[in-house]
Amino acid sequence: MTGAPRARAAGPLLLGVRHHGPGSARAVRAALAACAPRAVLIEGPPEADAIVRLAAEKDMRPPVALLAHAADDPGRAGFWPLAGFSPEWAAIQWALAHEVPVRFIDLPAANSLAMSAKQTPAAAPAPAGPSDPAALPGPATPLEPVDPGEQAAPGAGSAERLRVDPLSVLAGTAGYDDPERWWEDVIEHRGTGGAEAFTAVAEAMEALRAEYGHGGHEDDAVREAHMRLRLREARREFGDEVAVVCGAWHVPALGERTTATADRKLLKGLPKVKAEISWVPWTHRRLARHSGYGAGITSPGWYDHLFHAPDRPVERWLTKVAGLLRAEDFAVSSAHVIEAVRLAETLAAMRGRPLAGLAETLDAVRAVLCEGSDVPMALVWDRLVVGDVLGEVPESAPAAPLQRDLTRTQRSLRLKPEALERELELDLRKETDAGRSRLLHRLRLLGVDWGSPTVSRGSTGTFRETWRLRWEPELSVRVAEAGVWGTTVLSAATAKAETEARSAKGLAEVTELAERCLLGALSGALPVVMRSLADRAALDADVGHLAQALPALVRSVRYGDVRGTDTAALGEVAVGLAERILVGLPPACVGLDADGAAEMRGHMEAVHRAIGLLSESGPETGTQPEAGTGAEPETWPAAEARPQPRAAGSGAAGGLRGRWAAMLRSLAGRDGTPATPGLIRGRAARLLLDDARLAEDEAARLMGLALSPGTEPPEAASWIEGFIGGGAGGGMLLVHDERLLGLVDRWLISVPAEAFTDVLPLLRRTFSAYDTGVRRTLGELVRRGPAAEGHSGGQGAPAAPGFGPGLDPHRAAAVVPTVRLLLGLDPDPHGYDPMEAAR
């Protein structure tokens, strides 16, 4: 680029750029090749001078970022992202390839991090990047819209101050309503530009600064003073053969005639901390403006394509789009691509643009390749326009010991970080998958949420885990923060678990921590956690707290089978908690208001499930219904086909289950004195019925009592909500037991008009939770009228719409072997013939 612009006739080469602009990157590369400066100065933290040569290594693949953090507070950090199409990256690569010294000249990170820490919470700007805004003193964005709430420079005053958007001002002056489109037409579509491009941008910035002053960037004066001092040092060493690559907004300030004394005066007294700096991977997604990054751009993937495409960028881009859509099973042919190219070029000509830009190509993609659908269009935007590229840094890059251990572990487990979100299915019976699970659980304990557990779409066994993984750049900061706990992932997670166990305030916190220790195989932390658990369990008398703690503890006990962990001590604590809940729950249910009753119902359901799991984990896997409950099914075709009962009370867990059922029976049988809410009594009856510990006749009797004329309508409605409400299948219970439906129907008819408005919200909440098909079936049954007295859908009952006239014993008996097989029982233990038994 002959005749490149200079601040003066014989001064340094000042290249004002737009951060992350491919047009600026091409122009910078051409200008440096033409002028061959002896040194290149770049806007960035001077601490990076020591590690800039790593950018030349073959394992360094952008996008990457410089990460600086306070040595004594790793959470106070700042990023300086660089993409392959960033002008600063192009300048670094040219300088290293030509063995030209590279210096960074912005305000040191040691100062900017300290200044950010002095900001008050009220004055701190809104998030503008992947971490705390006050901790992201990244490079200013000279030609980028900056919202009032976006990141200010470190030490900024009010976050509400208005900032001048140079790009919008210049675009509006040129008659454009879209700043991005103006930038594409003026810079991106005009090759490498030339001296006139840099000169024109510098003149425009000078005019804007003369009109608007600092433009809302008050702290730029400090940064620019430091840049001028570094520039003077470089000129003393290399003369005027120096190139400066910085934001175009700063070019007028660097060309000002000021004295070194005046600049040092501006820098005097700035706060300072000890800072450490390293290279970390970055992603295109985090370069996007929608991520909150203050210097973000709309389309990182598109800009990366423009910078690296050797020719015919539109054709190559649409070919990429077609490849993506075909990989996702959309019908796209080469004819679609040809028509899309023609449409994009036609749109560009109609709009008076020199070349088809992003707007034209996206319009063509939507109309031709996506056929007007937003679904494939969203995929194109996410994968290609924004992009999911994750950079890489070499192993020789400086890193904390914890980061190095994490990298080694990821490599040994073949678990590569990726920017694209993906699901990972783990089989814990395999050693590699078990190691991956332990690593992810340990990282979650350390606050490094690389993966989050999700519901498996396949097997629901305890040996299966499903994770949703995505590596975000800010996780590098979380790893640095976690380094205070240890130098390896295992030691750091162990130390943090022990500290949290000692400082935990509630019993539920400790039980959750115990579960996480088992999941992460933190055997070193378990003794401390168990002591803390035993101490808090002995002192906590609140039934609600005990009920919150028990489910996590019982889940932990069950992990011993899959993960090979000794959970005997946890099992003893779990049984002790359950015993205390048995004693404390009945009096805790007395005198509760509506909110308290709803909360206690949730506790009761959670404990019911936990005791069931605890029984399965104990020496006895379950007990049969007790004699006299009427719970034994009457429809078993023959005695040989019935499940053989086990010895009740053969273990602590099994006896506990029986005592829990007795406690539920006492709750369900209360008549309201003392004042146990109907919600609790109804739910207790339902839990017993579902466990076959309450006969259907007895359930109907309890419902009849609860809905009798002597019961206040709101209390009766509350009982109904407890018995058939929520997602527990209460609607199907009414469908298949018309006696219960008839009781509800008759009670509802008998509710006085003045009380109906009081019970209506409860009833609507109860019945609105049912599926549409269940509500429709209930409506048909009510419209048909009650079944014959004494019938509940058995043989001889009137047929409901869509149902047969009664139970068909032959068809019912035929499914018994299959049901036994599903339950893991011998499908035919005694040569049993279901058809013969039915006859």
TrEMBL record:
Q: Which residues cross the membrane?
A: none
Task: Give the signal sequence positions.
Answer: none
User: What is the designated name of this protein?
Assistant: DUF5682 family protein
Task: Extract the Pfam families matched here.
Answer: DUF5682
Give positions of region: Disordered.
Answer: 121-160, 615-654, 785-806
Taking the record's annotation, the residue ranges forming a coiled coil are none
Biased-composition ranges, Low complexity, are: 121-138, 637-650
Q: Which domain of life is it from?
A: Bacteria
